[in-house]
Write a structure and sequence with these properties.
84% of the residues lie in helices and 0% in strands. With 73 residues, the chain is mainly α. It has a domain at 27-72.
Length: 73
Amino acid sequence: MQEAIKIDNRGDFGLWAIEVAKLIVSEEGFELARAARDGSEDDVRAAGAALGQAITNALLEVYDGLLEGASAE
């Protein structure tokens, strides 16, 4: 999610959301599954928290982008 993209419409936002969701699930979801299979309750809790944080970070990233676009107008 380092590369800046331009979201001009609902379709662009939908594509961005799908790509971000796939990235988050492939990284953090795998860690959660591994913790559930091999780890302790604390490992599962930590992996779940990391998944939640990744989702929060993605939402804040797009929100910040919306604010930047609003101030330019």
